[in-house]
Amino acid sequence: MREVRGHAAIGKVGRVLAVRLLPGQDVIEGCIELIKANDLRSGTVTAIGSLRAAKIVWAKTMDFGDDPMDAAVFYEMQGPVEMGVAHGVFGTDEDGQVVMHIHALIMDKEGNMRCGNLMPGSAPVFATVEVTIQEFEGLELKPTLDPEWKHKFLHPVTV
């Protein structure tokens, strides 16, 4: 078998939390509060629904320099917008803070779509957002500094 460039850990799916977020609740902030309230350490998040607005970010160039955010495009979409799908992962840092990496496909009222990292505090629910949160057992995603990127990424470790 050929070597794979990456980091891996094996675990299994534990508890599953299903939620309907109500109008006005920010999607990411709501998910993080639910993760904390249910003492989840790492897992996946999936969501669909309608938003009053959304801000997403993606890379505009392969040249990152010293700060990856220098290459970022921040794109705001005014609502109502549809979140066709959002999927991501979360972990917990050494201070107990939840760190989430979630991508979303967002469509505006003219049918234009954008996809990228969904920014916390930018995505208040319009009518409804349905969310499922699955916890991992036997593995955790730990925010770990990548020396090449000078950024913390969620790194899987067996526990």
Task: Identify the notable features of this structure and list them briefly.
60s Ribosomal Protein L30, Chain: A; mainly beta; 58% strand; 8 strands; single chain; 1 helix; globular; 6-stranded antiparallel β-sheet
Describe the overall structure.
7% of the residues lie in helices and 58% in strands. By secondary structure, the chain is mainly beta. It is globular, with a radius of gyration of 16 Å. The two termini are 26 Å apart. 22% of the residues are buried.
- For the record, what CATH class applies? Alpha Beta
CATH names the topology as 60s Ribosomal Protein L30, Chain: A
Shape: globular
Number of strands: 8
The CATH homologous superfamily is named Hypothetical protein, similar to alpha- acetolactate decarboxylase, domain 2
* Major sheet description: 6 strands, antiparallel
Give the end-to-end Cα distance, rounded to a whole number of Å: 26 Å
The percentage helix is: under 10%
Count of helical segments? 1
Mean pLDDT: 94
Strand/helix succession? EHEEEEEEE
* Estimated share of beta-strand residues: over 45%
CATH architecture descriptor name: 2-Layer Sandwich
Quaternary structure type: single chain
Radius of gyration: 16 Å
Low-confidence spans: none
The number of distinct structural domains comes to 1
Briefly note the structural class of the backbone: mainly beta
